[in-house]
Amino acid sequence: MKNSYIAVFDSGVGGLHILETLVKDFASENFIYLADEEFFPYGVKTKEELENRMTLITKKLDSMNVKVIIIACNTASANSHHCHKFINTKIIEIISATANYAKLVTNNNKVGVWATDATIKSNKYQEALSDIEMCYPVKASDLVVLIEKNLINDTKSLVNTHLNEIKDADTLILGCTHFPLVSDVIREFNKELQLVCSNEPVSIALKDYLDKHNLNNTTNDNQIIDLYTSKIDGELKEKAKRFNINANKVEYLEIK
Ligand code: DGL
User: Fold this and answer.
1) Mutate to test the pocket of ligand 1, among 8, 45, 54, 74 (most ligand atoms within 8 A of CB)
2) How far is the CA of 246 from the centre of ligand 1 (A)?
3) Residue of 176, 199, 236 to mutate, ligand 1, most atoms within 8 A of C-beta
4) What string of H, E and C letters represents the secondary structure of 1-58?
5) Is the model's pLDDT at 1 over the cut of 90?
6) Beta bridge partners of residue 171, listed in sequence order
7) Average pLDDT, whole number, for the chain?
8) How far apart are CA 252 and CA 232, in angstroms?
């Protein structure tokens, strides 16, 4: 079990950004990354479509004998509450950890949340932040496709519009794992805002789980990273080059 892989998944490049952090923070662990490119974008799908997809994906990763499944996606996290019923593998979702982190850093108790339309509709961030003075939820699925295609310069006007929607918040949760990739654009408009993304909270949650269950791989000095895409003609290989991920292989994985 200690030597088993850690599985990470998202619809596309957002999860690769989290994977980049985890690969560095857990240098003795091996990783499987699934980009669900076939079903991208998640954020405009219905609750039912997302829940069904999460069942299929978590079952598939469970069948690959991984020791933990990290949902490196807020939209998927918001729609995966039922998945633990079907599998034995531990699932780490990212919304609670990210919301708690934001509560620690806000000074005026006012937090904006940019997330996909589906995540905002799920109300999960609003519930997790219900004890602060003000939460400004913003549906921002319009940014996702541009970021996936690496058209970062084209996001400027949308970024500016969405910044105006969080009014007097001193902290912004980048509640979609694609959004840290426009942090520099956000900084062009606002230098003071505290930006909270899921990378660090997820890394802390994973460390906590591995330590508590004595599941750290202590004998590995040759880290392996296997990338999978659910789309036959997917572009994961190209996308992975945007991050410092040295993949062992990139393969198609059928999700059904
Ligand atoms: N990266 C995902 C998230 O954190 C979703 C992007 C999408 O496929 O819409 O919500």
Assistant:
1) 74
2) 23
3) 176
4) CCCCCEEEEECCHHHHHHHHHHHHHCCCCCEEEEECHHHCCHHHCCHHHHHHHHHHHH
5) no
6) 111, 194
7) 97
8) 6
